[in-house]
TrEMBL record:
InterPro entries: DNA_brk_join_enz (IPR011010), Integrase-like_cat_sf (IPR013762), Integrase_catalytic (IPR002104), Tyrosine_recombinase_XerCD (IPR050090). Keywords: DNA integration, DNA recombination, DNA-binding. Residues 143-335 form the Tyr recombinase domain. Signal peptide: none annotated. PROSITE patterns: TYR_RECOMBINASE. This is Tyrosine-type recombinase/integrase. GO terms for biological process: DNA integration; DNA recombination. GO terms for molecular function: DNA binding.
Amino acid sequence: MTTPRQKYERRRETFNEYVENGEIDQQTASAVRDLLDAYDDHNMMVSPPEGEGTREVGTLLTWLWPLMTMGRERNLTTTTAHKLKKDLQRMHDGEYPHVKDDGIKKSTIRNYQVALRNFYHYHNFGIDPNDIPVFKKSASPVDPNDMLTKEEIQEAREAADNPRDRAIFELLLYTGQRREAIRTLRLKDVNIQEGIYRLNSNVDGLKGAAERNGKRPLLGAKGPLQNWLDYHPDTSDPDNYLITARPSYSAVDPSSPISGETIRNVMEKIKEKTSIKKPMHPHAMRHNFVTIAKRDYDLADDTIKYLIGHRSGSDVMETTYAHLSGDDHVQRAEEAWGLREPENESPLTPEVCEVCSNPLDPGAKACSRCGTVYTPDAKSAQELVEEMALDGMRAADDNLEADAVKTFRDF
């Protein structure tokens, strides 16, 4: 499986070939390399500007391709903003070299605009980054009607017919993490007894998550993970991966992670065994987590961004999850004025506790018998989050992380 880092290195090789062939001038080549190296956490020779952190390798990839494409046509160190804007227009119209005849859609042009802005933010070549217009992101890609109901979540739970697949489903549902983050968790990254986990910071492709990698709550995934570990092929080595291939008659190597496609296939098989018609791929489960956390538990935006691994300055709540600002707020207002009966059922609360099998009330935030927390707004969850925040505050690498954990503490 090709990693984001390997893709990036291959793209750098292509870039170098263009330079050697004379398609990209030396001044542009040097400037692009300086930018990429400064924001690459694998490069120890150059640091990002003061007050800024490094970027994930996937982000560097989205910068490199546009700069490489435009650098083949003009010297980016001596050009003007007007010429660059004309180039972008020609791309959109299909009149630019290296693009298809019917042009590039605005969502792709936006990647070029963002790359140029970062390039001229880092370098002083006489171009104000703000002179490069950036198309707004399209409206929220998340349809609120695609979110799973409490009954559908329970149906999916029952359709997961083995402990490994059930653990994968619950991790996606209760953490909101990307499949790359889930598949690369190691045993030592998870503390089942305390109900917390950290992401594997050695992995590329986690976007902003690595920069805000404090403790996070497992919530209702705790019980299914406990059950899965009884079947795990080898829990003696903390460096082994949490999720492995399913134990069978053939040997399973717990030191190798499963692929992202395995996680996708697990979710497809679960869906096939249900009557659910809504999207259930891994990223759809991420959308479910965020929507439920905001709509049903009213978590602060920065708290949600921390939980799912977005930087504090991310606009994900205003773009991807813009659907949360409409009917949901109308419903809350009607409930507040007594015009509608409040919905007390918690979408994340199962029928029985996953740890001790105690029956749970539909609106229960935690198990009354063993204390397992199921909702992110439960009092015990908030206390846990506050404790995490204090630990994170002491270990914060920069002001960004400190601000994030302070938000937790204040929540």
